[in-house]
Every structure is written in structure tokens, then in C-alpha cells.
Amino acid sequence: MSDIKEETGQPAPRKRPSGLGRGLNALFGDAAVEAPVLASPGAARPATSAPVGDSVQHIAVGAIRPLPGQPRRHFDENAIAELADSIGARGLLQPIIVRRAPAGEGYQLVAGERRWRAAQRAGLHQIPALVRELDDAATYEIALVENIQRQDLNAIEEASAYRKLIEDFGHSQEALAKLVGKSRSHVANLMRLLDLPVDVQDLVGDGSLSMGHARALIGADGAEAIARRVVQEGLSVRSVEALVREAKGGGRKAPAESPSAAGSGRDPDIVAVERHLSELLGIGVAIHYAGGGKGALTLKFASLDQLDMICQRLSGESI
Which residues pair with 99 in a beta bridge? Predict the structure, then answer.
């Protein structure tokens, strides 16, 4: 992904403190949004110069450019078309977030690229936007958080975003986990996917391989060939683990139980589901199976922000 760079040649502004550790509201800011904030093709609202501040302004769609290196790389064209139809009928109800372009005139998208693309398709000339003064690190933090909370990123995009924040902006895995409301192990496990061959990463990115399949292939000999078999034959994660052991010369073809399952006498399939849900949600998950088809599912959270994210995902609510 391309880097975000200052190119103005002017003295760099005083660096804005990172939002890490200050909660999501500190990252996004509290906008004084008019209710409702509407933009529609027939709106007669004049465009403004969009002064920096915590209020929503209407600025020209053509004056906005995408964020270089933004975490999300893939956009569902059918979903954008549906959103464009909705915007054409009802207007755009939620403002995007932008910052002034580091080089030249106009603005740079921070959050809301899907809405911006749909607004163009719907024929809007102006769009409601919250213009904020952000440095590169804070810009990328907001872009990452917004995409994760909307569940817009695949595992490889999310992992790449974590790596960028660590390598380019000096964040730690612990700080990133707190920022996105997930466990440190989730961040670490995702970043390990970037050790996979590019062809295997592409299969994860397009949904052909699950994160569980991909994790089993990390460091495996012939990972690309095994990945193709998974896609063609619909192999389970445990089957992939067995193939990887064979490739390493282990000679064991039968899938082995995980240590936690073997040591506790628990059903390995229950343990596998538990692990899958934990990886999917990025939090601790425990399944207590009482038999007879009954049991309990426990979701563990480490902060109120993390609890809020869990509630939004379960309810399907977007931010």
C-alpha cells in the first residue's frame, strides 16, 4: 500500500496526539451534526469552503480524493449500486470524514469512501463532511477503526493495516488491540497471515479460504498446492492440518485433537467452533456444552468499548 506523505514543503504542523488509549470518541470527535444531515441530487445548498472544525459542512464531491493506502482495497460494486439507489431516493444521511489534502487543494478522505463512491454514482454534487485536522497516524487510525467496525475489511486487509500502523507509525500490538477493541492475540494471529505466499493471501482476501485454513498453512511446505485443494475439495481445517503434517514428514494422516480438547475430554468439534468464533470476533469465546443440544456461549470483553463493538456486531448496527 502506498504511504501517506506530507508534500507541501511548509513546516509540519504540531503533531496531533494519537487517539490510542483515549477511546473511539477521541478518535472520531463529536460532530455538531444538524439533524438530519441530508444531501440529495436536487439539493440547492451552496458549497462552502469547509473550515476545519467539529461541524458538518457541505463540500463538492469532486474536491475529495481517496486516502492513499487506505486499509480497504476491495469494494463490492453491487453493494455500492444499492447504496447509490438509496442515496438517490433519500439523500446521504451520514457525513463522511475528510482532512485537507496534504498537497494541493481539496480534501482527502479519512472515513466513508463507500458512501463517497455511491454519492458520485447517485449524481450528488455536494456531500456532507466533517473536516478534521489530522496527522497521518491519526488519519490511518480512524480509517482502520471505521472499516473494522463496519466489518468491511477481509483478514488480509486488516492484517496489512496493522502492519502499516506498527511499521510506519510505531504502534505496538497491545495499543492496536485496544484501539480496535480486540485481543492482542487476534492482532498477532492476523499479522502472521502476511507470512503466507501471496497466492494464498489472495484466496483469503476473496473469501475462498477462511482464517482457520490460512493459519494452518503458515510455514507449510507447498502451501499454495494445499490451498488449491482446499478450494477445490472443500477440505476442513482439521484435514488441512493433517496435510500440513504430512508435508512436514509427520506421517500422521488422521487429524489430531487440540491439546485443550485432549486434556479436558471436550468434544474437539466444540473446541474448533470455539476457536473459530474467537478468531472471527477477536475476543475470548467459551462454549459450555451440556449435552442434548443445550449449552451456553460466553463472550468475554476487556473494556466497555469492546462490549459496545460486540453489541453492534450482534445487532448489525453500523456506526
Answer: 108
Whether 257 is in a domain gets the answer: no
Q: Count of domains in the chain?
A: 2
Domain that holds residue 275: 264-319
3-state secondary structure of 108: strand
Catalytic, out of 105, 113, 157, 233: 113
Is residue 282 domain-resident? yes
Mark which of 145, 174, 207 sits at the end of a domain. Answer: 145
113 in catalytic set:
yes
What are φ and ψ of residue 15, in 5° steps?
-65, 130
DSSP 3-state helix, strand, coil percentages of the chain (rounded to 5)? Answer: 45, 15, 40
CA–CA gap between residue 66 and residue 5 (Å, rounded)? 14
The domain that contains 61 carries what CATH number? 3.90.1530.10
The structure's pTM equals 0.54
pLDDT (tens digit, 9 = 90+) per residue, 134-177? 888 888 888 888 777 666 678 898 888 888 888 888 888 888 88
Q: Dmax of the chain from CA atoms?
A: 72
106 vs 8: CA distance, rounded Å: 13
Which of 111, 126, 145 terminates a domain? The answer is 145
